[in-house]
Design a protein that fits this description.
Layout lengths: L2 H9 L12 H9 L9 E5 L4 H14 L4 E4 L11 E3 L2 E2 L2 H14 L7 H16 L4 E5 L16 E4 L7 H4 L3 H8 L8 E4 L17 E4 L13 H17 L17 E4 L9 E4 L4 H12 L6 E5 L7 H8 L5 E5 L14 H6 L2 E2 L3 H11 L5 E5 L5 H4 L6 H10 L3
Parallel strand pairs: 1-5, 1-6, 2-5, 6-7, 7-8, 10-14, 11-12, 11-14, 12-13
Antiparallel strand pairs: 2-3, 3-4, 9-10
């Protein structure tokens, strides 16, 4: 059994569920497993945007204090192993394959999805293989029925809640928030970002939980994440560390990194700076706007690729507040929105349309001047075809992961 064929077999399970929402298949698989989970060691992070940044900042803080810490996030950018990390290093191919053999045995007959099986793998790696002191788990989608919610946890973190995945979570904010609040039962503490007034009442449904609002603990000048949204996510992470009983404000985050969140990408052939920000919903684009404003430069080029499931009209409206830009449309490699499926407003505004993201980016390279800026956005899945091989630090961590055993 080799790694790449295993990945293909996992992906064939399907990204989305084929049965009614339920945690029972995951719970059944966990009941067959040979490890136990201590809820006091588990932090689960739910919300709409900023989940990955917040989860990774929490895990980084715990690791930097010498705590053996696992981190489970999604989606991956280049390699599936990015989803499962220990103290900042990804699971090795050897450990991945060992774990999958066990997990597929525990999952026999349960029809687990790709995400559910990877969640089971993360649990095995953290709690049996590596005996972690903490595991920080990012919810994949929603909360109530997400596979991560089958793992007992005593600390919940809620990042900002807004509209996304309406076809699965509901079309109004209260319904969406109620789904995300579904990870709170069983928790002793809930650390949360500011909530919209219309969903505040949901906290009353969990009276036995200690509700801890995010505090302004970090020095903005030392924030490792870009923009106000980055500072907000960092403060939420620091508040979580404080809630766990650790001196969050004394931690050094200078070597912390989180890829493709308004990150400058090193393209040798680019005539000007290229930034990648995986924003894919209206809230994300609204919070991206101030960061784009701060870039300056002569001209802004935006390479936009939206998944077919995204709220194109609301994103189009959010883009209206951006400084003047040249738009290029492309297609994502997952949940593809064909070029012909973009709105007439976006297609009419576009300076160019190209289905191949890499070809679209190189077209911009040919047009852009040294004083311009290029922004790639709309989907994290574009990273799989656009990150330059061997010239991004993510590849270095993947290489380090192979040596972990």
């Amino acid at each position: 059994m080799d790694y790449q064929s295993t990945i293909r077999r996992l992906e064939a399970r399907g990204i989305m569920p084929t049965q009614a929402p339920s945690l029972e298949p995951m719970r059944a698989a966990l009941a067959r497993a040979t490890f136990t989970i201590d809820p006091t060691k588990v932090v689960i992070v739910a919300g709409t945007n900023g989940k990955g940044s917040t989860a990774s900042a929490i895990a980084y803080g715990l690791s930097s204090m010498g705590k053996q810490t696992g981190l489970y996030t999604s989606p991956h950018l280049i390699d599936t192993r990015e989803r499962i990390a220990l103290n900042g290093k990804y699971i090795s191919e050897v450990d991945f394959l060992e774990g999958i053999v066990r997990c597929e045995r525990w999952a026999a007959g349960l029809d687990l999805t790709h995400f559910e099986l990877l969640t089971l793998l993360a649990a095995w790696y953290f709690f049996e293989k590596k005996k972690v002191e903490y595991a920080v788990l990012e919810v994949g989608l929603g909360g109530t029925w997400d596979a991560t919610n089958s793992i007992a946890h005593s600390t919940t973190v809620l990042t900002p809640i807004d509209f996304d995945h309406q076809s699965l979570l509901g079309t109004d904010l209260v319904t969406i928030a109620r789904n995300k609040f579904g990870v709170i039962p069983g928790s002793k503490k809930a650390v949360y970002a500011p909530l919209a007034p219309e969903v505040e009442f949901l906290r009353e449904s969990h009276p036995g939980v200690e509700w801890i609002p995010a505090e302004l603990l970090g020095d903005a000048k030392l924030c490792p994440l870009p923009g106000q949204r980055g500072l907000d996510n960092w403060n939420l992470a620091l508040t979580t560390l404080k809630a766990l009983g650790y001196p969050a404000t004394s931690l050094d985050y200078t070597s912390y990194r989180w890829p493709c969140r308004m990150e400058r990408i090193p393209y040798r052939e680019a005539p000007c700076p290229v930034y990648y920000s995986g924003d894919h919903n209206p809230q994300g684009f609204r919070s991206l706007q101030p960061l784009v404003e701060s870039l300056g430069g002569s001209k802004l080029w935006i390479l936009l690729g939206l998944a077919a499931t995204k709220d194109m009209r609301s994103i189009e409206e959010a883009l209206g507040s951006f400084p003047d830009f040249q738009l290029v449309l492309t297609e994502t490699p997952f949940q593809t929105r064909a070029l012909k499926e973009y709105s007439s407003a976006l297609t009419q505004r576009a300076a160019h349309q190209e289905a191949d993201p890499l070809a679209a980016l190189h077209w911009i390279f040919e047009q852009a001047a040294p004083s311009d800026n290029i922004l790639v956005t709309g989907s994290l899945y574009l990273a799989s075809v656009l990150l330059p091989p061997s010239r991004h630090w993510l590849n270095d961590l993947l290489a380090q992961g192979r040596a972990l055993n």
